[in-house]
Every structure is written in C-alpha cells, then in structure tokens.
Amino acid sequence: MADETWNRVDGQVRAGAIVQAGSVGELHVHEAAVRATAVPCQLPPALAYFEDRADERARVLAAVAEGPGDGGGPLVVALSGMGGIGKTALGFELARALLDHCPDGVLHADLDDLRRDGAVETADALGDLLRALDPQAHPEPELRGRARQYWTATQGRRLVVVVDNARSGAELRPLLPASAEAIVIVASHGPLYDLDGVRLVELPLGPLGPEDAVNLLRRIVADPRFAADPEAAAELARRCAGLPAALYVAGHWIRRHRRRELRRLVEELTTELDREGLPVVEAVWDAAYGSLGPVAARLYRLLPHHPAPVVGDHAAAVLLGTDADAAADVLDELDAAGLLERRPDGLGMHALLRGHALRRAGAEEDAADASGAADAASARRRLVRWYRRQAGRADLVAAGPRLTVSAPAAEAPAPAGVPDLPFPDAAGALRWLEDERLALYGCVRIAVEDGLDEEAVALCEALWTHFLDHRHYADAIDAFGRGVAAAVRSERLAATVRMRCQLARPLWEQHRYEEAAEELRLAVNGARLLGGTPEERKLRASAVEFRGKLASVRGDWAAAVPDFEAAREEHRAIGNAYGAMLQTYLLGRAAVAMGELPRAVDLLSEAYAEAGALGRERMTARTGFELGSALRASGRWAEAARLYEAALSSARERRSPGDELRVLEVLSALGEESGDVEAAARYRAEAEALRGPDGGAPIA
Question: Is residue 26's pLDDT more than 60?
Fold first, then answer.
C-alpha cells in the first residue's frame, strides 16, 4: 500500500499556530468550527538606527496619497541598488510607515529562499503567501490554481507585500495582489525593465551621503568618541563608502573596542586597506571577524553550510558540536558584532556576509593545513544526522507507525549535548516540518553531495508526510529524485523501490505522467526482485498500488483495477488487514468512477466495516464518505445523508477543517438534490464560513 497520510490541519486556535500575526482581528464563531482571522504582519523588529532615505519615503507617501487611479492594479515601489545598500531595510521601513494605510497586513517573501538552480518556485511563494493570509488555507497543487486563490484572497484588501531579491519583473508579476488598494515593495539589484503595465515608483538607491553615514554610525554606536573626534568619524564613514551594510558592521566593531581611541581604530582599518588592497566592505568585515572569540569565529565560518536562511540555537549547537545554551551565547556574540541580520523569522546571514564567511573559511583552511575543511565536513555530517533524527521523530508523531525502509528515528545517531525537540502532538510535528522545510530539503542535498546515502533516504521518507500536507513540488521532486540517486548508489533495492514511488506522486500531480510512469515501471520491476519477508511483500504491494493510482489519475480505471486487486491479494496473504482494507476502498472508488454502482456499494461497505473493526477513525470516516457518495449516486439519499453526517462529526472531532469542508459541500449538494432546501442552505453557509478568504479546497 502507499501508506497514505491525509491532511492533518489542526483547526484549533493555539499558541504558536500563527507565529507571524501582528494583531488579532475578529473571531468568528460558527456551529461548524471555530476559526480565527489574523492580520499578518511579517515584519522584523524595527531598526533603532535607520537613517536618511527621507526623499525616497516622501516619494512613496506622495504616490500612495494620489490613490489607486484608474490602473486597477497595486502600486509597485521598486527599490534597486547594489548588495548592502540598504534596500531590504528601507523596504521594511516603508512597510511600517504604511501600516495605517494598509490595515489588512504586511506579507514578506524572499525569492532567494525559493530559488532552485537560478529559478524561483513561484507556486511555493504563492503557497507561503496564502498561508500567511490564512493559516488554514489549502493551496491548490498547481501554480495556476494557487494564482487564482491568491487573487481571490487579496481582492479588495489593503495589503503591503514586501518582495526581496527579485531578479526580473517576470518573477514579481505572479505575486502582485489583485487589489488596487495594495502596495508592493520589491527589492532588486538592478531595475526591473520587464515590469510594465503597473503603477510604478522606481527608487534606485545610492550610498549614504557623508553626513548621513556619520549619523548612522552615531545611531549604531552612541559613543562619545564620535563627538570628541569628528574627523575620525568622518574618515570611518568615508572608508565604508556610505554602504549601510559596511557601516552596520563597522559600528559594532567600534563598539566592541570602547577603550581604544577612535582615530587609532580607523588608522588600523586604513592600514589594512592600503596594505592588502582589499575592497572596503571586505576590510570592515575582516576587522569585525578578527574581534570575535575563537568559538564565534568558528561558527561564523560554519554558518554558510546551514542550508536555510535562518539559524536557531539547536542548529548552531549541532554545527559547533556543543550544547544549545553555549550556542545561543555564540549567536549573541555574532549578532553583537553585526555579522547576523534580523529577518521576520529569526536570525540569518546576509548573502554578502555568507560569501565573506566562506572566504574566511578558505583562508583558515590554507593556514591550518586543511583542518578547516575537515571541521566543515564533520559539521555538515552532524547537521544532516540531527535533522534526519528530528524529522523521523516528527513524522512518527504526525503519521504514526507506517511502512519505511530506513531505521527508526530513535536509532539514528544524536549529537552529544543537543537534546531532541519536543513534538507533543501531530499538529506541532507537522508545523515544525513546515517551518524547517528549507533546512530539511537542503539537508537532503548535503547528504547526497557528501555521500550520506542512508541519511538522504531516511530524510526523504520522513518528508513524505510533510509533502502530503504541504505540496512544495519543486522541493519534493528535487529531494525524492536525489533520494532515488542515493538509494541506487548504495545498492539498496528496497530503498530504491520506495524512493521511486515517492518521486512518482509529485511528478504525476504536476502532470508529468510519462516521467512518473517510468519511475513506477522501474519500481515495480525492482519490487519483483525483493524477497519474501512481510515487509518486502508489503513494499511490493505498495509499488503496484502506486502504479494503479497513476492509472486512475489518468482516467484509465480498467488498468487501475487489476493493480488494486493484486495489491489486495498480497496484503491478505501476509495478514495485513489495513492494507487489504485500503485496496478494497480503492477498488470501490474505481467502481464508482466506472459506473458500477452496485459493486461500488458492496466494496465500500466492506471497506467501511473493516476500517471500523480496525479502529482506524480517519479511514472509517473516509470510507463512509465514499460509500455515501455511491449511495447518493444510486438515489439512496437517506442512507447517504447518515454516512455524511457521521463523516462530518468525525472531521469535527479530529479538528480537520479540510475534511469538514468537503463533507459540508456534499451535504449541501445532497440537500438540493433531495429537495431539502433548508438543509442545503444551512450546510452551504457553514461551508462558506469555514472556507475563508482564499476560496481553496482541501487537497485529498
């Protein structure tokens, strides 16, 4: 069997469920569910030392005051300039200035976080924005569907959308909200020449002027030495070339040496510049790096190996091979040195500083006879294994025991001193998998690059539940494809079969049917070579079931039925009652699709009874729902209504808004068909209340 894991979206309003909410708006209470509407505010804490850009802010506020006009689309503010010039900081400052004008919230998307081989995964960006607008949203699987949902969700809303690191207008256009009252602030290195047909305010940013640069240093340092030696302060600002990124680090560097004269510090920096011929920013960063303690300097060199834009205490501890409390102190030291940036979701490393850290690591490797390279390799290995262990544990909590080819997470090595994360319930486990998805998918890449094939496969298996709940197709196809490569390279036949099956599903959901069919052809052929243990026979049945599902997705039910029957026989032969029940359920669905209603009722009745006997609540509700559909199609409305009501009660008890919405919609349709207008209207109203602003439907 395919070990389906259905959506497990928790409908509760709970601490931590909406981590980026600035303020809570209305709380609507309906008979069907309790649903919170939050105003998203994806802004980092305001900088206490922002300086200048008054002209740019005035231009934006003037454009906003003019109103939407006749254009119909949002106002686009395009900030452009070299790295380190302060585009992102200005974008967030503008967003804060517009909070009163845009009371529906602030969204943020960093396109570099979603860039794969140079191209942005736009569907993932839209999915993130939809979930920010509504944490219970159900983004559709395809880009086109998500775009429609986004337009619906943003229509008429007064939002600010901040988009970082766009490389072209084509990358930005799908993220434009469908509201003339919205404002989009986009940061890019160069002008977006292909962004036409929109209301546009272009703001190319240059370096700060001498006076503003000194004022920014004063704000950062708040040190009497600047007043005592204004010429040295001006020289330092000049050496930083007016770049806020350099001034920020230089200010923190000065602050760390409070007992030394400002002029002496500036002379040291100038001497290094002249002697080494270094770029200005590089010298400033070298000076800040040189002021770090040895452990902080080591973490700085290792941070570029962390595959996510934000690093927390536990990940830092794993990189260092120390405990989380000590790692937190080291992160504080890097933050105090100005070598980390504050993002809406935590502390991270600016792309320019990431490059500098890699160069420092290279210099250390040369000086230390390649010991730095060995340290980096060990850190990467610890990171992969820690994330593999935590992902496996989270998956077990979220999905329960299921067929896997990898060793249990509890048997995976755990770095000394770094405790396991707590996963008290399925919702929390799934939330962690989503929050850490960039790190997890990135660790799959690291594992394959570093020859950690077993860890790569184990991570992919743990990510299966996450994929079924959050369709990040580009990440899943990339990771599961790497999982196939790792399994093949390690000559693990069972793992190869499993990885090919996992890869096939996101491929066929993206309509890449021929590629999916080839993966499943190889998977089924490989499964025939497996042995006769119950686990191997179960995996063989799973591969055949996947092939049948692909046939059903393509509408070839005649081809799907023999595969479901073969898989059922295999499960029955090994005494796997759940697997046999699942295949009976799939056969019942196939009979409905083929118009064989009496056979469908028989099969689904059998599956419904078996699921109940096994105590599988979710499958009892799901088989009951499908049986209700077969009865409804047969004109047996009263029997169908009873099953639908039972499925609705189950969805509400499990706090599964996706399943609840689906049942409410069919109950409304059944009421119309049977002439019960009052019931139809009641269920339709409950469905509308639950659906929310995105208009999305659950992914089954």
Answer: no
How many angstroms separate the CA atoms of 600 and 590, rounded?
8
Name beta bridge partners: 34: 29
In a domain, 167, yes or no: yes
Domain tally for the chain? 3
Coil, strand or helix at 21: strand
DSSP state of 209: P
User: Angle 58-112-295 (CA atoms, 0-180°, nearest 5)?
Assistant: 100
pTM for the predicted model, two decimal places: 0.75
Q: What is the CATH number of the domain that holds 181?
A: 3.40.50.300
| DSSP secondary structure of 357-400 | HHHHHHHHHHHTTTHHHHHHHHHHHHHHHHHHHHHHHHHHHHH-
Please give the structure tokens belonging to residue 92. Answer: 């967030």
Domain that holds residue 139: 41-204
**Residues 6 or more apart whose Cβ sits within 8 Å of residue 191:** 78, 80, 202, 204
Question: Of 252, 275, 290, which residue is a domain's last?
Answer: 290
Same domain assignment for residues 105 and 162? yes
230 touches 266 (CB < 8 A) = no
Q: What is the pLDDT of residues 248-286, one digit of tens each?
A: 777 777 777 777 777 887 777 666 545 544 455 677 778
3-state helix, strand, coil in the chain (%, to 5): 60, 10, 30
Q: What is the dihedral of CA 421, 423, 427, 429, to 10 degrees?
A: 50
Provide the Cα torsion 381, 382, 386, 392; round to 10°.
30
Per-residue CA distances from 526 to 162, 455, 477, 486 (Å): 48, 21, 20, 16
CB atoms within 10 A of CB 379: 21
> Who has greater pLDDT, 674 or 9?
674
For residues 505 and 511, what is the distance between their CA atoms, to the nearest angstrom? 10
Query: For 221-238, what is the mean pLDDT?
Result: 80
Q: What integer pLDDT is reported at residue 19 of this predicted model?
A: 31
Residues with Cβ within 8 Å of residue 97, at least 6 apart in sequence: 57, 60, 61
Tell me which H or E stretch contains 58: helix 54-65
Per-residue pLDDT, averaged over 509-518, amounts to 95
pLDDT tens, position by position, 658-686? 778 888 998 898 889 888 889 889 988 88
Domain boundary among 270, 290, 310: 290
Query: What SS3 class is residue 144?
Result: helix
Neighbour count for residue 653 (Cβ, 10 Å): 10
